[in-house]
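Milestone M4 deliverable, item 7.
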Amino acid sequence: MQQSTELTRPARALPPAVFGVAAATFAVVTTEMLPVGLLTSLGDGLRTSDGTAGLTVTLPGIVAALAAPLLPVAVRRADRRLVLCALLTLLAAANALSALAPGFGVLLAARALVGVCIGGVWAIAAGLAVRLVREGTVGRATAVIFSGIAVASVLGVPTGTLMGELVGWRWAFAAMGGFSLAVAALLAVLLPPLPADGAVRLREVTGLFRLPAVRAGLLVVMLLVAGHFAAYTYVRPALERIPGIGAGLISGLLLVYGSAGIAGNFLGGAAAARDSRRTLLAISAVLGATALLMAGVGGSLAAAAALLPVWGLAYGGVSVGAQNWLMAAAPHSREAASALFAGVFNAAIALGALLGGRAADHYGVPGALWLGGALALLATGAVVTVGRGSTEPRPTVYRRKVSP
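Output delivered:
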C-alpha cells in the first residue's frame, strides 16, 4: 500500500493547507472585530450613535451562534473545501457591501452575512486538522488553525483601524473584502478534496447534549468566554484609571496582551493535546485570578503590566483547549461537535459583553472585572467536577486512512 502525501511528510512539517485554513480563521475574526476600531468614524459617516453602531459587532455574533450548528446540516454532503471557498467568497461580498453601504440598514444586512460566514467557517475549520495532517501533529495543526484568533487581535484589527484613520472606514472594509477573496482562492488551491464524512443531521448535533462530557465542555466554554468578554471589553477603561497613563502606553500594553495570546494559543494547544482537562483547569484558574486581581489593584501601572501578559497567555489557550476537549468527548461526531462549539462560543461572546455592560453600569468598571473573574472561576469548578466523575474525556487517537 502506498501512503498518502500527508503521511509521507517529515514528522515536524505541516502541509500548506493548514496555514490556508488559519488564513480563513484570521479573515473571519478580523472582519468580525473590525468595527471595534472604527466605531467613531463609522457612526459619524452613517450619522448614528456609537451605541447603535455597536450593533455591527453584536449582530454578527448572534447570527454566528445560530449559523454554526445549522450550516453543516444545510450543506449536508457537500465537499467541505467547496463550502469553505464559498463562505470566504460570501465574506468578501459582505465586506464589499459594507464598504459601499449607503445607510446603516444596509451595513447591518452585510454584517448579518458576516455572521453566517463566521459560524460556518468555524463549524468546519475547528475540527479539520485531523483530516489534513498525520496522527502525531493533529494538536499542533489545530493550534495553527486557531492562531487566526490571536493574530487577528494583534495584527488584523489594529491594521484595519489604522487604515480607517488614514483613508476612511470604507477602505478598511474594502481591503478585508479583497483579502477574503484571496483566501478563497488560496483554499481552492491548497485544500485537498474534503468529502463529507456523512450528512450531518440536526438530531446528531442536538444529540451530543446527551453526552455528559460534551455538556460539561460546552458549559466550561460558556463560562470562560463569557467571563473573558465581560471583563476584557472594559479593560481599556480600567487601564485609563491609572494616573498619568497615555494612549500610547495603553496601546503598547494591549499589544503585549495580544502577543502573549499568540504564545498561549500554541502552548495551550500542546498542553491540551496531552491532557485537555488539566489544561482547561489551569487556564480557568489563571484567567479568573487575573481578572479579579485587575479589579483589585486599581490604578497600579506595574500590576497591570504584569497581569495583562498573564491574562493574554491564559485566554490564548481557551479555544484550542476547549476544541481538544470536545473532540475527545465526541470523536465520532467531530463536525457536529465543532458546530456546537462555534455556536456556544459566539453566544458566550454576546452574553459576556452584555453582562459586563450591565455590571459596569451598576458597579463601575471594576464590577465588570469582578464578574468576569467570578465566571472564570465557576468554569474551574465545572472542570473539577468532571474530573471527579467518569465522564472525563480521554485523549482521542486519530487514525487516518491510507490510499491503496
